[in-house]
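Please produce the structure of this protein holding arginine.
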Amino acid sequence: MTNTMWGGRFAASPSEIMEEINASIDFDKRLWRHDIEASKAHVAMLAATGIVSEPEADEIAKGLDRILAEMEAGDFKFARELEDIHLNVEHRLTELIGPVAGKLHTARSRNDQVATDFKLYVRDEIVTIEAGLAALQLALATTAIETADAVMPGFTHLQTAQPVTFGHHCLAYVEMFGRDRGRFADAATRLNECPLGSAALAGTSFPIDRKMTAQALGFTRPTANSLDAVSDRDFALETLAAASIAAMHLSRLADEIVLWTSPQFGFAKLSDAFSTGSSIMPQKRNPDAAELVRAKTGRIAGAFQALLLVMKGLPLAYAKDMQEDKEPVFDALDALRLGLAAMAGMVGDLTIDAKAMKKAAGREYATATDLADWLVQALDMPFREAHHATGKIVALAEAKGADLKKLTLPDLRSVEPRITEDVYTVLDPARSAKSRKSQGGTAPTNVRREARAWIKRLEKGGLSR
Ligand code: ARG
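Below is the modeled complex.
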């Protein structure tokens, strides 16, 4: 059928394939709530400025409410031939209230309409995602308090480096997700200008009140330039960029869960609730949720790339290319929301094997730096010399097949004769961790203090330190 919205100019219907490539309703129907909300704000403004009469506006608003109710009840019939959410709503409004429905589209265009709807949608999503990030932070900070004393090997290059505490490791992620929340909050602030009233691209000759619609929809102010407003998708890109970085953080933690729960590491276990079995190998316990969270980074970062390339090189102002903005955003934010919830679940579910971690922390000469530091402090050796002497002691331990703390005093003195019994106090991994009280260091006292501070902040809805 000919689209009645432009039936004046068009005599024939679009080809089937034209309809298929052109229609966005299959995905943009997700904007229904925001589309109605924006239309209601628009019609109230049209009445307040005298562009339509109060009774007309009233009729239109009531019609929109009915459509909203139909949609909430799942009774609304979305039609492909009506292309998108905006035309579906307007068509139904005409069915319900007749020709007066046609007055709703005065002083606006689908271009400013879709920009407004999409902003409202993304703004709501950011609120949900921020809450998901905060919930994950809380789960991690809670675990951090419980595991403030649990010593584990800290790694660089995934090689045992120095003893750290598991709580400290958890708090590292709390910091990352805190920065993610900052990025989303930042995007939300910049997003919050209302495009409605920019019309197709040039503004309108009707005496509209853009401040009124902006305020009604919770925006800080109207956008400043109509050409920019209808063709800007920075808010979606910024949100996807923030989502990509958050997903990257999730993937790192997910990967560590995969490592920790492997029999080779044996640092932690996920319960049945977060594990899957194998259809052939009865002994297997697989961390599928962690692997899927790790993998979702691909589609989320891919969505950012996709939209960036849709926007690249587009001349001002609107072009239909921009209809391709929605699916990547829907898909990426769905994936992120799910990933955050799954990760919070896994963090709460994880039981660590403190013994296994501690044992691993004592292997691979993890306290070698502590030994070098002791030589510096007790014997006033320059650090480079202490590093060299410690290297020799490690080689000796290696030759003897012993841990550092298993070397005898004569062994140690064969390398550095001034070493005393006191050195053994620093060769223990737990003591090593305890001694790292510098600001931001891994000491259990630090971890408990930082975790408590975060929990307090999170309970107050706070973001930064
Ligand atoms: N469905 C369109 C989109 O998502 C709405 C805007 C259409 N505007 C236009 N001039 N064809 O971008």
